[in-house]
Amino acid sequence: MTDNRDEIILSWEELLDLAHGFLTAHGLSEPQARALAGVLCRSERDGGRSHGLQRLPGTLETMAHPTFNKHADPTVEELTPAIIHVDADYGFSTLAAERGLPLLVANARRLGIAILAINNGFHSTALWPIVEDIAVQGLAGLSMNPTHDWVAPAGGTGGALGTNPIAFAWPRPGHPPYVFDFATSAAARADIALYRQEGRQIPSGWGLDREGQPSTDPAAVLAGAMLPFGGHKGSALATMIELLAGPFIADRTSRQSAQFDQQAKAAPCHGELILAFNPTLIGAALGKEGESQDAAEDLFARIEQQGARLPGSRRYAIREQSNARGIPIRRALHEKIISMMPDARPG
Questions:
Q1: How far is residue 264's CA from residue 64's CA, in Å, rounded to a whole number?
Q2: Catalytic residue positions?
Q3: Is residue 290 assigned to a domain?
Q4: Using one digit for the tens of pLDDT, what is the confidence trace for 225-255?
Q5: Domain count for the chain
Q6: Pairing, β 166-172 against β 175-182
Q7: What is the pTM of this model?
Q8: Residue ranges of E strands in 183-243
Q9: For the chain, which terminal residue's Cβ has fewer other Cβ atoms within 10 angstroms, N or C?
């Protein structure tokens, strides 16, 4: 570990030990802590601060929810060869996704497509790690989930939809996967919270205050309603995610998730829909597997030749730097995490 005035530089092992140690010190089971710490640390390593260790303190509020199960033991069930179900057992959803992934990949590789439906999971992490894990195995991955009803529909004045993130990954032989992950709100709620924490105003168009009026005050927007990106288009996409990752898999909508929270300020408890596709199965059956791969790579090349950035490329560049130089953590966040350990003593 090295440090300067504003940052602490940790190795991957030190970062993982910090997150895992924090979670287990507060009573989370080892399998749950290992899975959640891994995803949080991957986000921190790759520059996703809003979905990294910043989320550790909030896990205490989630674990204090009356329904949260610190010793959750997710169970995997194959409903049909194409549909896999995992009950997260009211723990964090990361372990449920991890346990369902092997069967999802195996069945998608054989059938061409498979669905993983996760129920009853508290979710507070990025979606891209799971779809990237699917893509490195030669499959395309798609994931989505509702959250809480923090987002006003286009033209509305109050919360009705969730931030409803969606992530997609496409495998690229010889290259890192093509990956995107974004909320259907104009900004992720964690990003707005980061603006508030840093004392900055948010851009216009991100949200409304309690009276339904546009605001650039992050605290006012967090107390009021966020806005979807792209107006009616983002609103429609968010509605699709509500339906597919809610009623379609027999789980909560964002409104129902907020009601389930009972003002505990926990991470949303809901379902998550993960799909895996075999992008070579049809091409191979038709004798065009190589042509399909070439067409995909031609598309990516034409984007980059114009000077445009492929989603995920920044993440990979930061990952390479982190692997070589260590992972920078804001000193204030590091000190806060240490101070919240059960055995912390005043300095």
A1: 8
A2: 50-51, 191
A3: no
A4: 999 999 999 999 999 999 999 999 999 999 9
A5: 3
A6: antiparallel
A7: 0.93
A8: 207-208, 225-226
A9: C
